[in-house]
Amino acid sequence: MESRVAELSAENRVTEAARLYERCMHDIEMMQQLGYCGGIENYACYLNDRDPALPPTTLMDYLPKDGLVFIDESHVMVPQISAMSKSDRSRKDTLIDYGFRLPSALNNRPLTFSEFEKVKPQTIFVSATPGKYEVKRSNDVVIEQIIRPTGLLDPEVEVRPSASCMEDLLKEIRIRSAQNERTLVTTLTKRSAETLNDFFNEQGIRARYLHSDVKTSDRVEIINALRAGEFDVLIGINLLREGLDIPEASLVAILDADHAGFLRSVEALIQIIGRAARNVNGKAVLYADKVTPAMKQAIDESLERRTRQQAYNQTNNVIPMSLVERLRQR
């Protein structure tokens, strides 16, 4: 602490030096009196006498060498592992520079991606849309899980013109609502999601929206309310993708499906289309003025899977059934 305070003072950064001194003295006093302080992990290298040059201790250290790790939704998780250490470093560099933390705070960090690769045991990557890294690390050994125990098929996929999308979508929603089924609609922006929500409610359609501004705790409530039939349409942007299982949803509508970008990439389209694969009446409608390469690839892959699933069901006399999943207690 004294050396860092002296360094800041030598740079005529009096405010930062005073801030750091007060923070450290307060934390030391808290540890002496209570045995801990807020952010005590930032002093870990002093408390456990661990060599700062070593990788941080994580749960991975407790796995046996012959253990097996499953990385679910690996196309999302693998990039997150890579980004965690970088974002942590960026945040702490700012805290250190302005005198909120000692440089030792950098020693308490996530594993870098190279460190993760060294300590992870044998690994199975699970994803409907595996990334290049997973495919490369697996030496192109990909095991396809196409057949579902319920016999469910990948949804039918249709492309319809954008010009009449609102009229067509209202018709489709009312058909689903009459059958006590739900509809998921994806847009490109928060504003369009909220505007569409207002439009649907004006048309007598019970709808709500879900995007990053909605609190995480409220998201579960919204999804449970949709499944319980309190409303019929859920509008989203990027949250209606991985890990969202709503068996009651039989229709997925993708607006502006022909727009270029991350939200309409092959991987994104496949993931969104898959949200309708939990219902025996599942269908995905892509509203677009043209069929982009990403759309064509996503549609072709869904059709190829559906064809193989139908053949298996016919051969084995399997009758598809919608998933039955209990609602979470509120």
TrEMBL record:
Domain Helicase C-terminal: 165-319
Cross-referenced InterPro entries: Helicase_C-like, P-loop_NTPase, UvrB, UvrB_YAD/RRR_dom
Pfam families for the chain: Helicase_C, UvrB
GO BP field: nucleotide-excision repair
Any Gene Ontology CC annotation: excinuclease repair complex
GO molecular function: ATP binding; ATP hydrolysis activity; DNA binding
Protein name: Excinuclease ABC subunit B
Species this chain originates from: Vibrio maritimus
